[in-house]
């Protein structure tokens, strides 16, 4: 197999060139034999008959007049010879002008002179025309050269329009593969090569974004682990010498609980694929109403501690297809986030809606809300709007990230918007698992609905 597309293009152009030249040569040869030569032979016979008729009817003066007119019209010299090759007009021997026996007619170039020889049917006369060639006439060679030029131009065009862009694409992909994640093709073409380039650029953007997010995740994780580990070391040393060892051990227990909570959250974060990819775990029919009721019940301790009430409205009577453990975790995290940021004694609103294709759970708190420019970031790992004023030491900024991955793994949509006051987080999943493009359409519909509600 050929390893270079340019080599394949060159060989293909050479093959096409050979075929075109063979076809052109066959076409021109057939056209000369079938169409051109018979016409000229007919003209030569007519001129011979006219010269003979002039001689027989008007004598030598009429013959001289006719031949002189041919000389003036076509150039060169025209003769009427007898069967032996002598000029009928002046008796000069022109035997050297006759074609070799047994030819009775011929035309062509000989030593820079174009000759026409035509014998009468009875063999009594020869019509001869000679004309020196001043400049070579256009021959079929010009057409051959034209074909060669066209094929070579097409080869160069294919190389420049197809091969070179593909080589550039391969170079960019190779550079990306060795770690230069900022390189892009940036093609403006609308054809398949342009589609390929834009698909690569889009893929590279997603990979670069995922790589940066994961690197940031590792940095944040190391930061989150450093503090409790340092406190554990200090608390352990303190427990050995402190008078109140129970208090020191309580500090150790709190730090261990924090580390355990962090590990469990990271484990949950790793279960769902990055970016809402496919999950090979089994999907089952799930009752959202029951699931929401269970989440509300599970959050009763947190809500009771803040004297908050959780009010559920709406319904979702139809079962949906999904993974109950992921959906339950997403609802729990969103609901606990709402309780965490709700004011003392506030109400948390949970609304269920179900259409023919989508099931939606909306959770609203009446807390401080989120700055508009940070709404999209609250789903990033370890992100906190104001870490210094975090209401809970277990708030690691992973809950909403886990919820997002769980929903996106179902090809669903999770979004946040300020409710003035408070924050509303909506989780929407398709009743049947669908493509990601359907989720994109749902996002646009939600944006339109939100603009109308405002």
CATH architecture of the largest domain: 2-Layer Sandwich
Q: Uncertain runs with pLDDT below 50, 5 residues or more?
A: 274-278, 388-394, 434-440, 450-454
Distance between the termini: 64 Å
Shape from CA axes?
rod-shaped
And the CATH topology of the largest domain? Heat Shock Protein 90
Number of helices: 9
SSE pattern, N- to C-terminal: HEEEEHHHEHHEEHEEHEEH
- How can the largest sheet be summarized? 5 strands, mixed
Class from helix and strand fractions: alpha+beta
The CATH homology group name of the largest domain: Histidine kinase-like ATPase, C-terminal domain
Counting DSSP E segments of at least 2 residues, the number of strands comes to 11
The percentage helix is: 40-55%
Mean pLDDT: 81
Total individual domains: 3
Radius of gyration: 47 Å
Strand order of the largest sheet: 6-8-9-11-10
What is the CATH domain class of the largest domain? Alpha Beta
Based on the structure, what is the oligomeric state of the protein chains? single chain
């Amino acid at each position: 197999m050929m390893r270079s597309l340019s080599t394949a293009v060159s060989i293909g152009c050479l093959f096409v060139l050979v075929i075109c030249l063979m076809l052109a040569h066959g076409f021109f040869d057939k056209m000369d034999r079938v169409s051109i030569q018979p016409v000229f032979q007919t003209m030569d016979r007519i001129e011979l008959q006219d010269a003979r008729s002039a001689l027989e009817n008007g004598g030598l003066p009429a013959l001289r007049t006719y031949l002189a007119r041919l000389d003036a019209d076509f150039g060169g010299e025209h003769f009427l010879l007898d069967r032996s090759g002598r000029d009928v007009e002046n008796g000069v021997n022109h035997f050297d002008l006759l074609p070799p026996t047994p030819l009775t007619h011929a035309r062509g170039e000989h030593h820079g002179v174009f000759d026409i020889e035509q014998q009468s049917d009875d063999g009594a006369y020869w019509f001869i025309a000679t004309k020196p060639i001043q400049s070579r006439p256009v021959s079929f060679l010009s057409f051959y050269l034209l074909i060669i030029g066209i094929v070579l131009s097409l080869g160069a065009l294919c190389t420049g329009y197809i091969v070179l862009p593909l080589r550039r694409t391969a170079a960019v992909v190779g550079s990306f593969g060795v770690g230069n994640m900022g390189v892009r093709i940036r093609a403006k073409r609308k054809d398949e090569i342009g589609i390929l380039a834009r698909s690569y650029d889009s893929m590279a953007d997603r990979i670069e974004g995922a790589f940066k997010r994961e690197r940031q995740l590792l940095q944040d994780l190391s930061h989150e682990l450093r503090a409790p580990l340092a406190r554990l070391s200090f608390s352990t040393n303190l427990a050995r010498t402190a008078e109140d060892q129970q208090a020191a051990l309580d500090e150790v227990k709190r730090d261990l609980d924090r580390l355990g909570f962090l590990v469990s959250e990271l484990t949950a974060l790793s279960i769902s694929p990055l970016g809402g990819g496919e999950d090979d775990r089994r999907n089952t029919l799930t009752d959202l109403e029951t699931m929401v009721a269970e989440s509300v019940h599970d959050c009763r301790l947190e809500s009771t501690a803040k004297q908050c009430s959780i009010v559920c409205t709406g319904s979702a009577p139809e079962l949906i297809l999904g993974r109950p453990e992921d959906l339950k975790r997403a609802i729990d995290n969103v609901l606990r986030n709402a309780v965490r940021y709700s004011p003392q004694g506030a109400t948390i609103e949970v609304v269920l809606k179900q259409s023919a294709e989508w099931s939606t759970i909306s959770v609203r708190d009446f807390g401080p809300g989120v700055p508009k420019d940070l709404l999209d970031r609250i789903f990033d790992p370890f992100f906190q709007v104001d870490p210094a004023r975090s209401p809970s030491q277990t708030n690691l900024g992973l809950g909403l990230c886990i919820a997002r991955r769980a929903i996106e793994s179902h090809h669903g949509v999770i979004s946040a918007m300020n409710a003035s006051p408070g924050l509303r987080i909506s989780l929407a999943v398709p009743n049947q698992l669908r493509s990601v493009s359907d989720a994109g359409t749902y996002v646009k519909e939600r944006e339109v609905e939100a603009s109308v509600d405002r």
